[in-house]
Design brief:
globular, YaeB-like fold, eight-stranded mixed sheet, 29% helix, Spore Coat Polysaccharide Biosynthesis Protein SpsA, Chain A, 17 strands, five-stranded mixed sheet, alpha/beta
């Protein structure tokens, strides 16, 4: 869906403080996928909506099937941040890969499909906001995820570089999230304790990026502070997050873990 800002809204966005601007941009990206989340302003304009973004920020807009028009933005003079640390995960599982003649997402490990196993790893690691990007065989795979209380988005361009799936998944992330895991849907061997360890490191040190490392090799999932979401959404090539990781290496914390699962995918299984 296309987003247009009126001259007034554009001015207010450009003049807002950096921290507020970041939340506004993330909120607009969220509205692109969830325009119905705003409150309809019946008593003023029947087709206008107000989205109550985090920390008292309000975005006024109208929309149709093709476009969201941001009419105005207002925010408090002093931004009161929340001490709560909400963390989400985006699991990238759109690729057209097969393992032993079966789509990777559906391959059973101890009678559990890989995609279901991946979802359960993050849930067991304490992540409740789970977002899965599907593409290849999406309608079949989606049935497996029914009833698991997760959000699913389908990337029709799944044969293109992974950054397209990453951007699709990030647009599902609520603006009040503080950090987001970017996870691969073909890594079903990660110990949930790794997830809790990475979260603990993030909450204590607040780096821009937290990444697991096994025997000197960087692995997945990678935890990005929400400040980097706008940059992740701008990536235009390759495997998505790698460009951002390389740019902010000096602000990344690598966490040594004793778990081969962070560097092992299904193709490495005998």
């Amino acid at each position: 869906m296309k987003t247009t800002l009126t001259e007034k809204a554009s001015y207010l966005l450009n003049e807002s403080p950096a921290e507020i601007k970041d939340i506004i941009v993330r909120s607009i990206h969220f509205l692109e996928r969830n325009p119905e989340d705003g409150v309809k302003l019946y008593k003023i304009f029947s087709e206008y909506y107000c989205y109550n973004a985090p920390y008292g920020i309000k975005i006024f807009y109208t929309y149709n099937r093709m476009e969201i028009i941001i009419i105005s933005i207002c925010y408090p003079q002093t931004l009161v941040t929340s001490p709560k640390s909400e963390i989400s995960a985006v699991i990238l599982a759109a690729g057209k890969e097969n393992y032993k003649g079966v789509p990777t997402q559906l391959f059973p490990i101890k009678d559990e499909p890989v995609i279901s196993r991946c979802v359960n790893i993050y849930r067991a690691g304490g992540i409740s906001d789970l977002n899965v990007v599907l593409g290849y065989k999406a309608e079949i795979i989606k049935r497996i995820l029914l009833g698991k209380d997760i959000k699913v988005i389908i990337n029709r361009n799944y044969t293109l570089p992974m950054c397209y799936s990453l951007k699709a998944g990030l647009k599902l992330i609520s603006p009040d999230v503080n950090a987001v895991f970017v996870a691969l849907g073909d890594q079903p061997f990660i110990n949930p304790e790794v997830i809790t360890t990475l979260v603990d490191v993030y909450r204590k040190k607040r780096p821009l990026i937290v990444s697991p490392e096994y025997k000197g090799k960087r692995g997945h999932p990678v935890l990005f502070d929400s400040k980097l979401i706008p940059e992740l959404l701008k990536v235009k090539r390759g495997r998505g997050g790698i460009e951002v990781v390389q740019k902010y290496q000096s602000e990344m914390v690598k966490v040594r873990v004793n778990d081969e699962g962070v560097v092992k995918d299904l193709s490495q299984t005998v």
